Amino acid sequence: MNSVSRKTGETDISVGFEPYGNGMGTIGTGIGFFDHMLTAFKVHGGFDMEVDAKGDLAVDCHHTVEDVGIVLGRAIAGALGSKAGIARFGSAYVPMDEALAFACVDISARPFLVYDAPKMAPMIGGYDTEVTQEFFRSLAVNAGITLHIKVLYGENAHHMTEAVFKAAARAIAAALKKTGSSQVLSTKGVL
Question: pTM here?
Answer without folding.
Answer: 0.96
